[in-house]
């Protein structure tokens, strides 16, 4: 039987933090995740600074982070999230092409074009990040 979700830190759902300054994307991402067995929205944030604070408190498994955020950008926020929540894998989300973004593989686990948001893509990203999960 295929596992629909498995936390990086043990049994339980994949806990996702959604970070975007645009409410429509936060809402859409949360709706997709809510319909995925074995996954849950751990929290939401609107800025990079908020993402760091929320990640430290919630300890998510996965952070879906917009690249273009007010204040610190998604790449900078991902590096800070890595410091406070090292178990969290950050996937940058954008309408820009991945080649046009400053992506550091040491802090960014993947890239998602916002138009590709969907359960199959999220599962594939997670499987690539955590093959044993």
From TrEMBL:
- Cite a single GO MF annotation: DNA binding
PROSITE patterns in UniProt: RESPONSE_REGULATORY
| Protein origin, superkingdom | Bacteria
An example GO BP is: phosphorelay signal transduction system
Q: Which SUPFAM superfamilies match?
A: CheY-like (SSF52172)
Q: Sorted alphabetically, which keywords does the UniProt record give?
A: DNA-binding, Phosphoprotein
Q: Which residues form the Response regulatory domain?
A: 15-129
Q: Which residues carry this modification: 4-aspartylphosphate?
A: 66
Q: Which InterPro entries match?
A: CheY-like_superfamily, NreC/VraR/RcsB-like_REC, Sig_transdc_resp-reg_receiver, WalR-like
Q: Does the keyword DNA-binding apply?
A: yes
Q: What is this protein called?
A: Response regulator receiver domain-containing protein
Q: Which organism is it from?
A: Pseudonocardia oroxyli
């Amino acid at each position: 039987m295929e596992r629909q979700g498995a936390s990086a830190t043990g049994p339980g759902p994949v806990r996702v933090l959604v970070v975007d300054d645009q409410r429509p994307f936060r809402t859409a991402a949360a709706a997709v995740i809510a319909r995925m067995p074995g996954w849950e929205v751990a929290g939401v944030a609107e800025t990079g600074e908020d993402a760091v604070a929320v990640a430290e408190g919630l300890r998510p498994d996965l952070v879906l982070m917009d690249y273009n955020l007010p204040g610190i950008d998604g790449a900078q926020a991902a590096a800070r999230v890595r410091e406070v929540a090292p178990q969290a894998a950050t996937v940058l989300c954008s309408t820009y092409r991945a080649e046009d973004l400053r992506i550091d593989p040491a802090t960014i686990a993947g890239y998602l074009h916002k138009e590709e948001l969907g359960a199959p893509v999220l599962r594939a990203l997670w499987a690539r990040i955590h093959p044993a999960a």
